[in-house]
Amino acid sequence: MKQFRSAMFFFMAAVMLLVGQSAMAAENPRDMLQKAGNALLDRLVKDKAAYKRDPQVLYDIVEKNIEPYVDFEGFAKGVMGQYYRQASDAQRAQFTTTFRKSLIRTYANGMAAYDNQKIVFKPYAPGDDPKKAQVDMDIMTASNGAVPVTYQLVLNAKDEWKVKNVIINGMNLGLTFRNQFASTVESSRGNLDKAIVDFIPAAEAVKKGQ
């Protein structure tokens, strides 16, 4: 459980680095993430006293900056897995909304623990598919050393790179959440409406269980 909580912090920190500016397709996604991340981290340091006094300040920062740069619909579709095809348009929309809110709360809770960890981006190498990208980085910590983080991004119709999944220290968050949702559907005896309402990504469950 302790290891999972640590992994979730790095997930939150990694995704938060995506905020800042939108990127044109011609821009190297690594450079885009690095510039955006530096700008955000500067703000987190500057506003730390304010959000320590009032957590809502941090939630507002997260919601404003995260939403435009994460492919929540694609992320949610991957988490629903095989059940996405079975779901109605209304169920898909409800799941995406619930999943988005849960992750935003999780990111905000995780970033409250940010303490000037050093971020090291690896050299970027384009893949075979020009509409997909992978950016690797390490989060340097005093207790755990270098924690590897991989962003999986997609290029949308507006030529904007958006994150669709994150892998931290070998833990694929999209796959982890997909397995959790499948378990929720099973425990709901196949009732998709109930599963959507009851589903809580593990990061939120861990937070509530502390």
Automatic annotation (TrEMBL):
Keywords: Signal. Residues 1-25 form the signal peptide. InterPro entries: MlaC/ttg2D, Tgt2/MlaC_sf. It holds the Pfam family MlaC. PANTHER family: INTERMEMBRANE PHOSPHOLIPID TRANSPORT SYSTEM BINDING PROTEIN MLAC. This is Phospholipid transport system substrate-binding protein. It comes from Fluviicoccus keumensis.
